[in-house]
Specification:
The chain is mainly beta. Helices cover 10% and strands 39% of the residues. It is built from five helices and 39 strands. The strands form nine sheets. Strands 1, 5, 6, 7, 8, 11 and 12 form a seven-stranded antiparallel β-sheet that branches. Strand 6 (109-115) and strand 7 form a beta hairpin. It is globular and about 75 Å long.
Length: 624
């Protein structure tokens, strides 16, 4: 076929030119005004590809401080999908909802509703490392319904847990950082949007929740409200408010069988999280107090109120104990005093707002078969364990060894039904795994998007039976890229922790099962690193561990050797009774537990897996 034809007239050429130009313009206009892979919202008919879950949605959380944007959701574990309902009280020209690793506006997985001034569109999108938004070539959010109601505009849509799209966020157990934004003017094209130029915010939720039915409460259940006494919320962004409440005199032993939040109407977007602590029974009288937890004039005895009874965070529903167990409260050997701690998040600096939020404890005199208990796993609060500066990722492991569980647990073991993870500001992830016979058997709890600003008690999807001789390993992930000095373990917010408070039954005397590297081997590390860097004036052993860490010359080699030390050197075990005394036995210079086989995560449907199968083990090879 010849490209050119000598017989073509100028008129023919002209017609062909303008025809091609017109076709090009049609294509450009179509792509500019009506993206081919976005859904036009006007005229949408509700035709879901699968049956809708029963509404209303069981889980919901306000996203913005005004409460104008609310997210509700439901979960289908069978289909590995999340159904989401977004309510916008005052929709202008659109809204953005997304998920990212830590709540960043960059490299986020987004779903966007926007209008061009004439028509409205809905689409799956993503942001690049500068916040520029693009429509995704693979549309994984399925719009089911869009509707105006009396209280706002509602969007109902769904998305799989995993889409196998590298630009999409993997929805898994643990914290999900939800980002949101409002569009105040029309968008001729979505690629004109940059998230840094609109009003945005972030909210944290536990997206995936257990789908088990709630147990029935006993007929004689009573309630006790532990609430703030009509306090005026300070007009500052962050406040931790403490309040001491006394139980009735001579209160007999009860079992807490359920608790739930009590939020003052209108404050749903300000009350961020709350905890109720029982004070130590060794402290006879705790003075009345209602004020800032950080006030230097607060009573010192508040520091003895650390035994967690209840914890709630924004978006959490009521917490039920298993039918066979309850958390003891009252009776001999317990304290009469409780401490309520409320975190107020007030970024709009609202003044004069009063609050009486707190936690409602449902308790019963009909004692259940077992007392529930709380055990601390992870690392001991000590500067012996440290994270080097300028680290993108650094891991620390805390061990509960087979020797400790063999010594302290009953023959039938214990049943773990919930846990509460804890680190400070450098923490990025926490994982506790059960190891039996050298093989990882079950993940107790895992959160690879953990935030110290979102701590709540999480119910396990599957209860874990810990037997004598089992090992529990708690692995924490840290990031210290913004720090120029080492971060040591301790109680300060700029120091670090690695803890999992597991909730279990039957209650035992084992209160704490944690570890740290053997100090003698740490001193050998200080000596070696100082000699390697030509410092013969090592003060090893003459000053405190914190000072020794700070005097090191920190480079890649120093950090790698420390990591190797933590993973190979003998450990010192704290296998403590509730009296804070060690169980009888030798607990120093214990070997690090050996893991020969690790769990693999189940495959999602888009990867060719069933999605509902349990993790399987694979042998641990060198370099894994």
């Amino acid at each position: 076929m010849r490209i050119c034809n000598k017989n073509l007239r100028l008129q023919d050429v002209t017609i062909m030119y303008f025809t091609a130009l017109a076709a090009l313009m049609v294509i450009l206009v179509a792509s500019y005004q009506a993206p081919s892979n976005a859904v036009q919202v006007s005229g949408l008919k509700s035709k879901p590809s699968s049956p809708l879950p029963q509404l209303p949605m069981p889980f919901r959380v306000p996203l913005d401080p005004h409460g104008d944007l609310q997210l509700a959701w439901n979960i289908s574990y069978a289909d590995q999908e999340v159904y989401m309902e977004l309510r916008v009280a005052d929709l202008k020209h659109g809204v953005v909802l997304g998920m990212s690793d830590r709540g960043e506006l960059t490299n986020a997985d987004l779903v966007v509703l926007w209008d061009s001034g004439e028509k409205s569109y809905f689409g799956d999108a993503w942001s690049d490392n500068e916040g520029h938004v693009s429509l995704d070539s693979q549309q994984d959010y399925e719009l089911i319904e869009a509707e105006h109601k009396s209280d706002g505009f509602y969007l109902l849509f769904k998305r799989p847990f995993s889409t196998c799209d590298p630009r999409d966020y993997l929805i898994e157990e643990g914290t999900v950082h939800i980002i949101y934004g409002f569009l105040d003017k029309p968008l001729a094209s979505l690629d004109k949007l940059n998230l840094s130029r609109i009003h945005t915010g972030v909210q944290r939720v536990l997206m995936l929740r257990p789908d088990t039915p709630s147990p029935t409460l006993p007929p004689d259940v009573q309630t006790l409200d532990v609430v703030a006494p009509n306090v005026v919320i300070p007009n500052q962004e962050t406040t931790y408010w403490c309040f001491i409440q006394a139980l009735p005199e001579n209160m007999p032993k009860n079992h807490i069988v359920m608790y739930e939040s009590v939020i003052t109407p209108g404050n749903e977007a300000i009350v961020h999280h709350m905890e109720v602590f029982e004070c130590s029974p060794d402290v006879r009288d705790v003075p009345q107090y209602s004020g800032s937890c950080d006030d230097k004039m607060r009573p010192g005895k508040l520091n003895f109120c650390r035994h967690v009874l209840a914890a709630w965070a924004m978006g959490a529903e009521a917490f039920y104990y298993p039918p066979d167990a309850g958390m003891p409260m009252g009776g001999p050997g317990s304290s009469r005093f409780l401490r309520l701690e409320v975190h107020y998040h007030n970024p709009l600096l609202i003044s004069g707002r009063r609050d009486s939020s707190g936690i409602r404890l449902h308790h019963s005199l009909s004692l259940r078969r077992y007392d529930a208990g709380i055990m601390e796993l992870g690392l001991v609060y000590t500067p012996i364990m440290a994270i080097p500066p300028k680290q993108h990722t650094f891991y620390l492991n805390g061990y509960c060894t087979s020797k400790c569980t063999q010594t302290a647990l009953p023959p039938g073991g214990i049943h773990v039904f919930a846990s509460q993870l804890h680190t400070h500001l450098a923490g990025r992830g926490v994982r506790t795994v059960l190891v039996r016979g050298g093989k990882e058997l079950q993940v107790i709890q895992e959160d690879q998007h953990f935030s110290t600003h979102y701590q709540t008690i999480r119910v396990l999807k599957k209860m874990a039976n810990i037997l004598p001789g089992d090992v529990l390993i708690t692995k924490c992930t840290y990031n210290t890229e913004d720090r120029s000095t080492p971060t040591v373990g301790g109680f300060g917010i700029m120091e670090e922790m690695c803890v999992n408070y597991i909730h279990y039954y039957p209650r035992t005397k084992l209160e704490l099962c944690k570890s740290h590297v053997e100090p003698e081997y740490l001193q050998k590390y200080f000596s070696f690193i100082n000699r390697f860097h030509g410092n013969d004036q090592c003060v090893c052993g003459e000053v405190g561990v914190t000072e020794q860490y700070s005097q090191l010359q920190w480079d890649v080699f120093t950090g790698e050797v420390l990591d190797s030390l933590y993973n190979t050197a003998p450990i010192s075990m704290h296998c403590n009774q509730s009296s804070a005394r060690l169980f009888p036995g030798e607990w120093d210079k214990q070997p690090v537990p050996v893991v020969t086989s690790i769990l693999e995560k189940p495959r999602y449907p888009c990867e060719g897996g069933g999605g509902g199968s349990h993790p399987t083990s694979r042998p641990l090879t060198p370099g894994s």
